Amino acid sequence: MGKVTGFKEYKREDFGYQRVGERITHFKEFTIAMPKDDVEKQAARCMECGVPFCHSSYGCPLANIIPQFNDLIYTDKWESAFRNLMSTNNFPEFTGRVCPAICETACVLGINDEPVAIKNIEYAIIEKAYEKGWMKTLSKEKQTGKKVAIIGSGPAGLAAADQLNKAGHEITVYEKEKRIGGLLRYGIPNFKLDKKDVVQRRIDIMIEEGINFIPEVNVGVDISINELDKEFDAIIVCIGAGKPRDLPIINRDAKGIHFAMDFLAQNNSILECEIFNEQEKISAKGKKVLVIGGGDTGSDCVGTSIRQGAKSVMQIELLSKPPLSRTEEMPWPKFPRIFKLSTSQSEGCDLEFDVLSKSFIKNETGHLIGVNCVKIKWDGQNFKEIDGSEFVIEADLVLLAMGFVGPSQDCVIENFNLKIDQRTNIEAINYKTSVPKIFSCGDSRRGQSLIVWAIFEGRECAVVVDEFLMNKKSMLNRSNKSLYEL
Amino acid sequence: MGHNYLPKAEGLYDPRFEKDACGVGFVANIKGVKSHEIIQKGIELLINLEHRGAVGAEKNSGDGAGILVQMPDKFFRKIAMLQNINLPSFGNYAVGVVFIPRDPEGGLECQTIVENCILELGLDFLGWRKVPTDNSSLGDSVKSTEPHIYHIFVAKPNHIIDSDAFERKLYVARKYIQTEVTSSDIKSNEYFYIPSLSYKTILYKGQLITAQLPLFFADLNDKDFESAIALVHSRFSTNTFPSWPLAQPFRYLAHNGEINTLRGNINWMRARQSLIESNLFSQDDLDKIYPYLINEKTGSDSSILDNVVELLTLAGRTLPHVMTMMIPEAWEKDKQNNKEIRDFYEYHATLMEPWDGPASLAFTDGKFVGATLDRNGLRPSRYILTKDDILVMASEQGAIYFPPEDVLLKGRLQPGKMFLVNLDEGRIVPDIEIKTMLAKGHPYGEWLDELKISLDNLPLNNQVKQPNHKTILRRQKCYGYTIEDLKTIIAPMAKDGYEAIGSMGNDATLPVLSNKAVNLFNYFHQLFAQVTNPPIDPIREESVMSLVSFIGQQGNLFEQNKKTKKFIELPQPILTNENLEKLRGINESNFKAITIDLLFDVKTIGSMEQRLVAVRNAALTAVQNGFQVIILSTRGVDKKHAAIPSLLAISAVHHHLVEHGMRTNCGIVIECGDAREVHHFATLIGYGANAINPYLAFETIEDLRKRTLIDEHLSSENATKNYINAIEKGLLKIMSKMGISTIQSYTGAQIFEAVGLSDEVVAKYFKGTASRLSGIGINEIEAEVLICHEVAFSEDNVESTDLSVGGLYSYRQRGEKHQYTPENIFLLQQSARTNDYEVFKQYSKTLDYQADNLLNLRGLLDFKKQAPISIDEVESVEEIRKRFATGAMSYGSISLEAHQTMAIAMNAIGAKSNTGEGGEDPLRFKPFANGDNANSSIKQVASGRFGVTMNYLVNAKEIQIKMAQGAKPGEGGQLPGDKVDDIIGKTRYSTPGVGLISPPPHHDIYSIEDLKQLIHDLKNANKEARISVKLVSEVGVGTIAAGVAKAHSDVILISGYDGGTGASPQTSIKHTGLPWELGLAEAHQTLVKNGLRSRIVLQTDGQLKTGRDIVIATLLGAEEWGVATSALIVEGCIMMRKCHLNTCPVGIATQDPELRAKYKGKPEHIINYITFLAMEIRELMAELGFRTINEMVGRVDKLEARKNITHPKAKHLKLERLLHGVHIRSTDSNYCSSSQEHGIENAMDNQLIEMAKESILNGTKTYNDIIITNVNRTLGTLLSSEVTRKYGENGLPNNTIHFKMKGSAGQSFGAFLTSGITFEVEGEVNDYVGKGLCGGRIIVYPSKNSSFEPKNNVIIGNVAFYGATSGEAYIYGLAGERFAVRNSGANIVTETLGDHGCEYMTGGNVVVLGEIGKNFAAGMSGGIAYIYDVNNNQSLKINSAMVYLESINSESENTKLKTMIENHFEFTSSKTAKTILENWETAKTQFIKVIPKEYKKVLQKNEQKCAQANIKVQG
């Protein structure tokens, strides 16, 4: 293990951020990484637990071997740490930026101290690898002659593609949008995950490694199922869970009400020089923005709105404000629902909890001018409106960020004739859909979730597909199973 | 078929593991004058050794007693005349003793065979005599197996030239008869046995209590029955089964001890058959001897030892010669012996491996009588010679009374030394004379010089294979190397030269339950010594250990001549690549090496076994063709070829060669890629490897070094050297766990138990290995090899750039399965903290339902549920909770907070907590102001005896003797100085800042009768407390448990191997001992079989976690249960496994105040947990239909093996033996329903207490004169306990109670003698005097009437003042071995002492006015010893690893020393003291002051502190 008494000697330090005033002037990433020595000290805080909870069902789904790479970093074996990290995680450059780091909330040090800064260490490792040129195109050692189509280029699709490509199969990834990356590209603001410098950087490597990316093809519309079926030995459907939850209250038809993802995707597209006409454009500039929904997507809307120059930004949430630290109901090592001001929220936004939106208010032109709200009181699973607490929030742009309810591309599901489950996700037991040789993974299978889970699903699905194709035990790494299993 | 005196194997009981230990001794007239008096004295001696024997389930059934004497010629002439037999002159006839089956028909047939065989061999058969016996005093069980006992008379025919030839023929006859009877189908032939058939000696023995011997055999009372020698033996067997033939003595010897290497010795004897030729025996004779030579399948180790002694003696060596070669002293490192003697030993070492183990042997051939002690000298042997030539040698002194004025000499046998009487010459022959004479017998040195090849001098004919770094990862994968192997195992060894330390228990699954390919090595569990023999401390007692081994052909064991073949001597068994190539390229005439590869084709299933068979045959052919070195090699693994596991290959070849009698013609060397950790090397050697070249481990080290994963400044050479060093230390440790000192006898000794290998694999390739559950076959082993091979060589494997995570030592996803997972640790903590039974049920579900996730043996069991009852009818939660104990965790290994929480919780619910071995603060003995009671009910007594005072003992409800610890059975422990803070120092009665060592053995328990003694001592110390003995599960633990029950323990705890530890070498945690399921079931089955179960409470622990676990434990036989790891988890432990680093982040296993502040556990949490367990138990009881726990104990009929197991390995397991139900005797019960008889009421102490009544009541003075004998054991302990109960730690003022005693004191004299009591002895004392002395004063001096010189005569026994904490003692005379071991505060003056004096001492002062033995002050970390070195010869005998030798340098010290010597003079009138005092100014400069380095540093620091404090005060 690293330093036996490291956790006693060093305090947790996090990456710095650009000052708010500075960072809201641009859409670039604004974290300031740590010097190498400091990262090594942070790694020294890892206790290399006998039972590392970071690396359990409470922690990282990918089962990143966190204690080991921490130790390697502490002992200045960065390249080994990089190899170690890559053996379980295809995209540490993504998770190192945007993962909520459940590994950290499960960290044993977190019982009575600040957990190890695992996510930052991960970030530092992968960026060092790019800097040093360790992260490079790998030549494909073998070719099986099997062809796999992957529909959807989000994190699940990319992970599956990367894995199956390594296993020697010929991979084609279809993407309905213009650019590759799905949610990574369109959903997450550029200031959290840079599209060119980070996402495309990786896509480029994958292209060089021989993966065939075909954007702007909407499977089921632009290309028929039959064609795919003929050409490919296996098909993986990983189309995400992009269908947003709506808020069907009075005056929902008012102009100025948008789904968060439409807003965020467009902003990212603009940054990548796509041009939209004014009708299409959703801009917060000079507007009073109300974000409905207190989650991460909501926060992304807040940050984006601020950067676009909103007059004011407010965010409301139906649920109560979470406690500031763990309570008995949220014991370690469970992921705690605790209140933490997101970086976007701290850039200047009013935040209110226990607010129910009753109806939108529109003006005579049909344009939104506000929302009628009421304060509520929660009693277990149920809430009651508080009499007399009705109030109006003035707003001319509402962004709905209330979660997602399943895959949005019904065309694929219908065309493939895939069974769906009760939650309208694609039913795929052990990643196998109801249709032979068609597999599914990621949000479209498990429902809206984290990027790290999407990567997990892509990797696990790849193993199943590999075994299906080759009819023998796969040599791809899995999260929970060793290659040495009988 | 073999002898069947013992019951057949049944369930987990196997008679192979029966043990015995004993009282042994002889009486002789050294001038050879025969008399009946000698017989009478012999019997008297025997009867006075009775307390060393044992009685079984019936009081009148003993374990065996016997007497071996010279042929009583006069007596037999009388008898023969009466029977009309014409007896030739002495030397020309023999009388044999024959046990004939009682079955009339069978008996007759046996008699016919006896006569026919004798005639067939050309001897004259003169007739039978029915030996008069009287069995009226015998118990029923013994009577039922009593044979008819006959004498036979045989005469020497004329064609046999002399008596020696006659004796040899008699021997052949005896063997031949036994073979013929045994191989016949005669009814009851298993009862047939010939105790002796000789012209020189005759043996009377039987399954008797000592006192029954003269009653049973009327012959012994006949005045004409005369001998100059009477060698006697009283047996303490672990079993209670009648076994007449196993009573001792045997034909040549009586043995007190145990041969640990027996399995190997037997194999080696068989292995050398082809090399045995003799002029004295014809081939026909040899053919008759062989089938029965060592084939006594159910013979005891002692009987087999006797067989070989007999054979070698008859083959032409003298008896002393044979004893010296079989049980050599520690010659390897002994610089005191001259070269000739060392050459003698070395020559014989090339002929035969030592028979290793604790042994005190008395032997006679009718002409010589003598005794020898093994190199460790762990069995006491004392002797006394009177002025009228009577010599008495016995396990203890005083067994026969002689008036002091008649005594000429009192002595003791020293380790490795021989004591011999030559009756012809009428004198005692000193050891050095015997050895010198033997050494001069032949020019051994010249022979050795000519034939010995040293590896260093061999030319390097081959190129050394260089590491191949490109393929290293691939080859590592091929052998299943993991990241942990590199980081946890190999790197620390290469860096530090030590195995890494780990902590907590092993909760990883057994290899056979693992879902992964597991190294074959890991299926083997190391066995270890407990109770019946002691483990050794390989570090502090290094002088007795040896790793020297030989490669090459052994000579003819029967001939004492120059060997014809060369041989290589290896200083240790690990070969570097260069040394291997030297060996491979050896090109001497008559000395050649051959390499046989172990590669097989990966494509064809079954080809591994084909190759294995081919390898075996190739090896045999090679040996037959004259190759002396067989190198088995795994080199050359590639895509198409995998390698046979090295262990499988080595064992298969070794056994094949043994079976063909060719094994001793060659050395087997293994060149292998798979061996990397110490355990691997131990198994390879244990199954026959003479040397090992772990080339891949070497390459790995080099690779790690290059990748800077080991210290980059370390040179390649040093890294390899360190690694080999670490293996050496590890091997010594593993050997010493079993009490084995030399690798030569460890080689092939197979001291392992296999778990999960099929009976077929074991029978074919690991013959003789204990394996009780069957398991995977050769094809599954092949499959495991192939999986690793596939990972390594598959083209598909494109992404794994590193080794697998392993996960054996820490929990890892993708790693090995563990019982504790992040998930259930959380659930357990959450349930206990929130008192939520539902959450607890979620927790237990993760462990109880093991359908696809096998975790432990109990996971393979199912309940047979029938006839459920309402839960309301079941015993209450409150009652069930009382049966729980928390495990022994010392304050020191865990924090005060964690320790007290447990005690408070357990006391609150009437359950028990355990102090662990670190003592306990007396402040805790009374409840706190808030009512919390933190006094641990169970007080542990471990080998270190830390804090074991009378006050500690009287405050116990149970006293637990820790024989072994699950995580590291057979090993001692060490608490580094920085962990010994002020409070820990105080509770352990040691100096803060000074490190503490717990020795591997209890130095007062070297055998079962010693344990019996300690149990008795502790019962005396606190007669209200239960005495418990903690054992660890291993094969044979059942027979040990039976022995412990017979030693009157009230409770036996069977711990699983998976129990926790605060610090232990990683491979010990993993590879030693077995799961509790096996040990518990075996113990219960064996106790029931012996009718002993009702006397004893059986308890178990070891990763017990859920109600189901406990119900299964109960059904397998335990009525009480311990939890430890789970209790810690409830307190907040998250299994960091960092206990040994003092960095526990939750404040449990740490003494760091900052971390202790983080401790969050509460007594309620533990109470909640125990309550949940009880609730779960009740639910299951209701389902199973049990109302009470007692009803449920041992009901294995309610368990069955789970059906439909699909696990590829586990499905092969067979659990019948585990689930075997043994018939319960009508007088016994399945659970503890009666109590042991401790005999406290008969103790002499009751009289002492009566005499000292007034003193105890009101502190007035008492003085009394009393007479004592050696049967008054543990004198003063009961008295001390009465004083302590009233006066606590401080006792009474000095000398309040003074007893002046005369005579021979028994063992444990003055044990735990407390302040205010003075014991003054005029006479002598036996072993363990002043054990645990705490404040009392002991004075011993010889009888005023004796005429011998006191300073040259032995006056006290071995292991005196062991674990003394305070008090004083003055000994005028010689003391035995291991004087003042672990003394932590007593001040003692003695004249001289034996080997290993002041070992592990931590405090107090010891003054020695005469000679010290070898290895003085080993492991001494505190206190001071002053040695009078008038002849300037003592310093070499001091083990200076931890101490400085200085002279007295201060006035205060001068005064202290002088006062002690003045006291000594005042109390004992010592002449030595007088002389010293008279010349004090000179004398004081002649003292060597022995002061531990660490201790000195701390003393200096304290002085500085005081000085600074003074300055401050002054300032």
Keywords:
heterodimer, A: 486 residues, alpha/beta, five-stranded parallel sheet, globular, B: 1515 residues, seven-stranded antiparallel sheet
Mean pLDDT across the residues of chain A is 95
Radius of gyration of chain B, taken over Cα atoms and rounded to an integer in Å: 32 Å
Number of helices of chain B: 46
The greatest inter-chain interface is formed by: A-B, 58 and 60 residues
Low-confidence stretches of chain A: none
Separate helix tally of chain A: 17
Please state how the strands of the largest beta sheet of chain A are arranged side by side: 5-4-3-6-18
Please give the order of strands in the largest beta sheet of chain B: 43-44-45-46-47-48-49-50-52-51
Low-confidence stretches of chain B: none
Q: Give the amount of beta strand of chain A, in percent.
A: 15-25%
Number of strands of chain A: 18
What percent of the residues of chain A sit in helical stretches (DSSP H or I)?
A: 25-40%
* Outline type of chain B: globular
Q: Helical percent range of chain B?
A: 25-40%
- CA radius of gyration of chain A is 23 Å
Average of the residue pLDDT scores of chain B: 92
Shape of chain A: globular
What distance lies between the first and last C-alpha atoms of chain B, to the nearest angstrom?
Answer: 89 Å
Helix/strand/pairing class of chain B, anyone? alpha/beta
- Could you give a short account of the major beta sheet of chain A? 5 strands, parallel
How far apart the termini of chain A lie comes to 30 Å
